[in-house]
Amino acid sequence: MTPLLALVVPCYNEAERLQPGAFREFLASHDGVRLIFVDDGSRDGTFALQERIRADAPGRVSILRMPSNRGKGEAVRLGILEGIRSGAGIVGFWDADLATPLDAVDDFLAIAARRPDLEILIGSRVRLMGRDIRRQHGRHYLGRVFATAVSVSLDLPVYDTQCGAKLFRVTGEMASVFERPFHSPWIFDVEALARYLALPVGPGERPRESRIYEVAVRQWHHVPGSKLRWFDYIRSFFELGFIHRRYRRRPAPRGRGC
Ligand SMILES: Nc1nc2c(ncn2[C@@H]2O[C@H](COP(=O)(O)OP(=O)(O)O)[C@@H](O)[C@H]2O)c(=O)[nH]1
Ligand SMILES: [Mg+2]
C-alpha cells in the first residue's frame, strides 16, 4: 500500500531512549504511515531495537543502516529520499527521543489535509498557556537568540527551526531540496528551508514563505541524553552565516537607469 506519510526517525546511539512500545502503538493506530529508521553508525543496541519494531509491524518499517556516523542531516536526507521513493504523499522526520510525542503527527496531518496549499509543516515550541512545553532554561534562551538570528537571516517570521518534528509535502521541487547533501551538518533544517525558499516561483504562484506553516505543538518535553554540546551552538552561528551567503534571496535585478 502506498503510504500517506513516510516518517524518518534518525537514530544515533539511541538504545537508552528509543521506546519500541510507543512506535508499535503508533503504527497500530495509523494505517497509512510507514516508518523509516536510520541507524547512523550506532555502537550500542539501537539497530537491535529498530529490528524489534520492524518485526512487530512487517512491511511498515524499514531501516537504513549506515556503516559509520554521517550526522543527523545526512541521515534524515537519505531517509526522506527513501520515503519519496516509497510513493508517500507526505514525508517528514521525528526525533527518536519523542520529545514531541507521536500523537502530534495527527495534528500535523489534519492541518495538511485542511490546507493543501501548505508544503512544509514545522513543529514549534511556543510556551503558551494550555501547552506543555518543558525546555531547559539555558537551551531555551540560547535557542531564542539562534531562532531570531535565523529569522533575520532568512527574512522569514519563523519562531523555531530546531524542533525535531517536520513534515514536507512531496512534489518534484521538494525532492530537489533533498537531492544533494547539506553543507551544514548541525542546522540542516535551516538549510532545507533556505533551499526551499530559493526555489523559483512561477508567475501567479504563491510566494514560498506562504506555503510554510508552524505548528505550535501541544507538548514538548526535553529528554535527557541529548547529543548536542554547548560548542555545537557556537558552530550553528557559523553555519548560519554560510547558509545566509549561499542561499541569500537576491532582489530581482533592476534595469540600469540612464
Ligand atoms: N542519524 C543521526 N541522528 C542523530 C545524530 N545526532 C543526533 N541524532 C538524532 O537526532 C535526534 C535529536 O537528537 P538529540 O540529541 O535529542 O538533540 P536535541 O533534542 O536537539 O538535544 C535524535 O533522533 C537523535 O538520535 C547523528 O549524528 N546522526
Ligand atoms: Mg532531543
Explain what the structure shows.
The chain is of the alpha/beta class and 258 residues long. The chain has a single domain, classed as Spore Coat Polysaccharide Biosynthesis Protein SpsA, Chain A. It is built from eight helices and nine strands. It has helices at 20-28, 46-56, 72-85, 104-114, 137-154, 172-177, 188-197, 230-247; strands spanning 5-11, 33-40, 61-66, 90-94, 120-124, 132-134, 165-169, 212-216, 219-221. The strands form two sheets. The protein has a seven-stranded mixed β-sheet, with helices on both faces. The chain has a two-stranded parallel sheet with strand order 6-9. The relative contact order is 0.15.
Strand count, sense and closure of the main sheet? 7 strands, mixed
| Amino- and carboxy-terminal Cα gap | 62 Å
**CATH fold name, please?**
Spore Coat Polysaccharide Biosynthesis Protein SpsA, Chain A
Strand content: 15-25%
Roughly how many Å is the radius of gyration?
A: 18 Å
Quick tags:
258 residues; alpha/beta; Spore Coat Polysaccharide Biosynthesis Protein SpsA, Chain A; 7-stranded mixed β-sheet; two-stranded parallel ribbon; 8 helices; 38% helix; globular; binds guanosine-5'-diphosphate; binds magnesium ion
